[in-house]
Design a protein that fits this description.
- This protein has 354 residues and is an alpha/beta fold.
- Helix content is 28%, strand content 27%.
């Protein structure tokens, strides 16, 4: 094992550095993981560019990265279900206490939760990283490290579709065909949605959505009103969708989502935008359209692993760029420019394979 632990560290807005940090020592209920593949998320880029997301502010140097998979190389004395050599996917959110949210299975809502690369907690974009063993999930041989890393965004899709009550025969609208919109599409189809429409400004993203199974594509043009777009959705689907999953956080798109959804349907807000937005609340209220939030996910890793192992879901096409860890700054710049879909950093210098 290396004595050096190369890590991608954010010091302040725009100040991203590669640094050598000590190799951590796992506690009794932790494992030390040699990181293999870590995806770059939009939140990583936002912290890099702005130093904060909402109330979460980078006040001290922080290691980025939370979409991750690697190989266990050391286990704590209390760990029984993992051993050195196991390939694992890492769930980045770990409850710190057994509060009411933990007890009811909604540990993602615990106000004291540890979460990789959310200030002040370090992420796992490094050669070596220690994590709670209970939140490391063994990967079957048929699931690659990159697929393991993509379980994190896939989990957002699983949780969003659960919140949207997607089931056999559902009709679904997804606003936004970025990485999260695309995983929502994959999951909605896997959960049995019969018709899925997806909207975006960018034609190339919609082309990817078509390849991944979207039934209808709606290219949004600047100047389209939310009401007009809602009518176009109804025209494409032949009806209003039962569920709309909003993945952009853009005010006009949230408005479209509400107008487009049928009476008694559900709008799920996944995308993060401005703290205050104007929405047609009366339209939602009078038509009993439920508006639900999504904060990360809970209890999704086992389902996601089964989906990947059974080939119900194929996330491999989402990875469009790969960089060695040493080229992290270039990788972040690629993501910032919106090139491709998912940029993957390869942390093991001796294994750059998927």
């Amino acid at each position: 094992m290396d004595k050096e632990n190369l890590s991608v560290v954010l010091h302040s807005p725009g100040d991203l550095r590669l640094e050598h940090r000590p190799v951590p020592e796992p506690g009794p209920n932790e494992v030390l993981v040699q990181m293999h593949s870590v995806g770059i998320c939009g939140s990583d880029v936002h912290y890099w560019q702005h130093g904060r997301i909402g109330s979460y502010e980078v006040k001290k140097p922080m290691v980025l990265g939370h979409e991750a998979a690697g190989r266990v190389i050391k286990v704590g004395s209390g760990v029984k279900h993992l051993q050195p050599g196991d390939r694992v996917a890492i769930e980045p959110g770990v409850p710190r206490e057994m509060d009411e949210f933990f007890k009811t299975g909604r540990y993602n809502l615990s106000p004291t939760i540890f979460f990789c690369a959310t200030p002040p907690d370090d992420g796992n974009l490094s050669r070596y990283y220690k994590h709670s063993a209970n939140f490391c999930y063994k990967l079957p041989d048929s699931v690659t490290y990159e697929e393991g890393a993509l379980i994190e965004p896939l989990s957002v899709g699983i949780y969003a579709c659960r919140r949207a009550q997607v089931t056999l025969g559902s009709t679904v609208l997804i606003c936004g065909a970025g990485p999260i919109g695309l995983v929502c599409l994959l999951v909605a189809k896997a959960m049995g949605a019969s018709h899925v429409a997806i909207s975006d400004l960018i034609a190339e993203r919609l082309e990817m959505a078509k390849e991944l199974g979207a039934d209808f594509l709606l290219q949004v043009k600047r100047g389209d009103t939310p009401e007009e777009l809602a009518k176009k959705v109804e025209g494409q689907l032949g009806r209003q969708p039962q569920a709309t999953i909003e993945c952009t956080g853009v005010e006009s798109s949230i408005q479209t989502a509400i107008y487009a959804t049928r009476r008694g349907g559900v709008v799920v807000l996944v995308g993060l935008g401005s703290e205050m937005v104007t929405v047609p609340l009366l339209s939602a209220a009078l038509r009993e359209v439920d508006i639900r939030g999504v904060f990360r996910y809970s209890n999704t890793w086992p389902v996601a692993i089964d989906m990947l192992a059974s080939k119900q879901v194929n996330v491999k096409p989402l990875v469009t760029h790969r960089f060695p860890l040493e080229e992290a700054v270039q990788a972040f710049e690629t993501t910032r420019q919106g090139l491709g879909v998912k940029v993957m950093l390869k942390c093991d210098p001796n294994d750059q394979n998927p």
